[in-house]
Amino acid sequence: MFYTIEDSIRLSRAFRQMPCEVSEEVRGWNWNTYPLAPPSQLKLSVSDIFNGFCDSWRILYLRYIVRERLDERDIPLPLVEGSFIHRLFTEAVRYGKAILYREDVLDARSFREQFERVCKNKFDELYSDFKTIPLERAEKIFLRVWGLAAHTYSSSLDRFKLRSPYLVPDGLASTVIPLTTESPIDGSLVGLNRNIRPDAVLWPATLIELKTRQQHSDDALALTAYAIAFESEYETPQNFGVILYVRFDNDGGGFKVYERIIQISDKLRTTFIERRDRALTVLEEGIDPGQPSECSPHCPYLKVCSRDDR
Ligand code: SF4
Questions:
Q1: In the chain, where does DSSP find H-type helix?
Q2: What is the number of domains present in the chain?
Q3: Does 226 reside within a domain?
Q4: Statement: residue 268 has pLDDT above 70
Q5: What is the CA(264)–ligand 1 centre distance, in A?
Q6: What's the whole-number mean pLDDT along residues 12-28?
């Protein structure tokens, strides 16, 4: 979950074993020609298109045409817990780097101690936005993830300190913790919002997405959307990305992480374009597309759609 430079090298080796041919017309830098050129001036977030909830796109109609407001209490617990884990991940990476930028932290032990010292305050701060999660479960999840970050990056710090005691804080922070979380990408050239944010970018440029739910075909498509937007803005190829599935057990005391490497293939890119165009058309038309044959039990609009006959 908390990738190190060694993980980055391991992944690069794995990518090299998996040749990936990509047609030039579906590279993000060809955003202004068919088939990548968006059919509308409207913009969408990645989760508007690839949320794994609503095959009929009614969710878009409710969000942007009806402007239905959600009651916080109606948001299913797995979604709230997923947001909590994402925030915790981002904060652990940020805090680890903040420690490393302070030159007085010289060794792994003091790095770990600083993580432990702020543990209680950090939990209270984060939990205040996620109070629908049972307290005991939230505490267990927090301690597991926070502890893993402290352990992973204190060991990483030790390894780099052995290599050279003279590393400056900037170089040290970026090699001990080679992740940038929620780095904004301008997706506007390919029909997405101006500030879309993948969960993390692993040095040198691997897009990482965290998922806390069961696997869904939309997961690889969401990663593809970020990859195409990245190519459109930075003109740098994105042939692979990684999805990390984070699964906590029932009481929140233990968890497993499964790594899935995704080839950003022509097929995924073409499906991204089809789905994006369909979503933009639903918004342009502003007509209720109706309900799909099956609604996801995790859709936050379940109450809305079951109470009315729009
Ligand atoms: S409840 Fe069903 S129809 Fe309504 S937004 Fe969710 S998935 Fe779509």
A1: 5-16, 46-49, 58-60, 77-101, 108-117, 119-127, 135-163, 169-176, 217-234, 266-285, 302-307
A2: 1
A3: yes
A4: yes
A5: 28
A6: 95
